[in-house]
């Protein structure tokens, strides 16, 4: 596919950047053993996923089964779904962060780690395109709704990627209670990344970073007395509409909402869906749907992308 070739060629722009540090080999072996022992624990319900994600989960399973995880952020299929690297629009996002009065705060958040052997951003080697992109999304909450991220105490992320946003919040608040809902295989990848970053990640509510894939657990004991945030970066908008209903309770229990979405995905009109959601909850939230001014897909697949952000009234 042409997009895979372009992505590979773009990665060479970072040839001059510093190399990532080597990871602890003994720790790596222990984490991979845990993953190997737990890879078949939960069965993935394929009807909850669109075709794109069924294919992706099979590839994640094979990667974890082989145990070749050390350089997972160099895998093309993971970059396509989870890891944005050398795109020029990211430089515009970086510029917006640098021009903010909160730049010293954002500068700390975009500092990249070595886990997964990420490609450093070729125009700012201390970070990656993905970290810059994620922090830029968070900056929208401050710019548009005056949200102080340091006051967030609890986060529920639908589709946590490899754990990048969770890692960012570990720098914002060391006592954060963070939940990643994803498929079991992706949860295991998150476990690998977060454990290597010395974070208390696991599959129990006792963990500060709780990894879950079972729908039955998402609404159990969800506290509302904490300053809470619901995040879904292109994840909720890539699931069947019927499946999204399972998360409306979580969304409406959260104080702040940040959802990124593309105008259409496969056969779904997302712009229509999120405008309907806005109408449904506007009596409880100040809601804005904003067009992403920097990102409109790629040269092969151009379409509009949006932020759905909300603050409880």
How would you concisely characterize the structure shown here?
By secondary structure, the chain is an alpha/beta fold. Helices cover 40% and strands 15% of the residues. The protein has one domain (2-14, 22-312): Vaccinia Virus protein VP39 (Rossmann fold), CATH 3.40.50.150.
Defining traits:
two-stranded antiparallel ribbon; Rossmann fold; alpha/beta; 8-stranded mixed sheet; 15% strand; 313 residues
How would you describe what is shown here?
With 313 residues, this protein is α/β, with parallel strands linked by helices. It has a single domain, classed as Rossmann fold (3-Layer(aba) Sandwich). The protein is built from 12 helices and 10 strands. It has helices at 2-11, 25-38, 51-66, 76-81, 88-98, 103-109, 129-145, 164-172, 184-196, 241-244, 248-253, 270-281; strands at residues 154-158, 177-181, 201-202, 209-212, 228-233, 256-262, 264-265, 268-269, 285-291, 305-312. Strands 3-4-2-1-5-6-10-9 form an 8-stranded mixed beta sheet, sandwiched between helices. Helix 2 (25-38) packs antiparallel against helix 9 (184-196), helix 3 (51-66) packs across helix 9 and helix 5 (88-98) crosses helix 7 (129-145). The longest helix is centred in the middle third of the chain and has 17 residues, at 129-145. The chain is globular. It starts with a helix and ends with a strand. The model has no long low-confidence stretch (mean pLDDT 91).
């Amino acid at each position: 596919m042409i997009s895979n070739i372009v992505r590979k060629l773009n990665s060479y722009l970072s040839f001059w950047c510093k190399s990532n540090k080597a990871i602890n080999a003994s720790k790596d072996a222990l984490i991979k053993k845990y993953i190997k022992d737990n890879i078949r624990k939960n069965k993935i319900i394929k009807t909850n996923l669109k075709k794109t994600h069924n294919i992706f989960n099979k590839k994640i399973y094979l990667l974890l089964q082989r145990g070749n995880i050390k350089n997972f952020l160099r895998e093309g299929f993971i970059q396509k779904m989870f890891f944005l690297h050398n795109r020029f629009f990211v430089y515009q996002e970086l510029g917006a962060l640098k021009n903010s009065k909160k730049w010293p705060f954002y500068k700390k958040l975009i500092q990249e780690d070595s886990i997964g052997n990420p490609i450093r951003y070729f125009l700012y080697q201390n970070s990656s395109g993905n970290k810059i992109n994620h922090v830029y999304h968070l900056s929208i909450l401050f710019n548009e709704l005056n949200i102080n991220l340091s006051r967030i105490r609890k986060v529920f992320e639908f589709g946590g990627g490899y754990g990048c946003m969770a890692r960012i919040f570990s720098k914002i608040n060391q006592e954060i209670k963070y939940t990643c809902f994803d498929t079991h295989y992706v949860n295991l990848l998150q476990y690998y990344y977060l454990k290597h970053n010395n974070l208390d990640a696991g599959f129990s509510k006792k963990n500060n970073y709780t990894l879950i894939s079972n729908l039955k657990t998402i609404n159990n004991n969800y506290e509302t007395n904490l300053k809470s945030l619901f995040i879904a970066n292109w994840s909720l908008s890539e699931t069947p509409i019927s499946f999204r209903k399972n998360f409306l309770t979580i969304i409406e229990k959260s104080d702040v909402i940040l959802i990124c979405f593309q105008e259409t995905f496969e056969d779904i009109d997302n712009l229509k869906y999120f405008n309907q959601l806005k109408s449904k909850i506007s009596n409880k939230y100040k809601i804005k749907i904003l067009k992403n001014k920097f990102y409109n897909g790629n040269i092969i697949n151009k379409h509009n992308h949006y932020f759905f952000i909300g603050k409880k009234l």
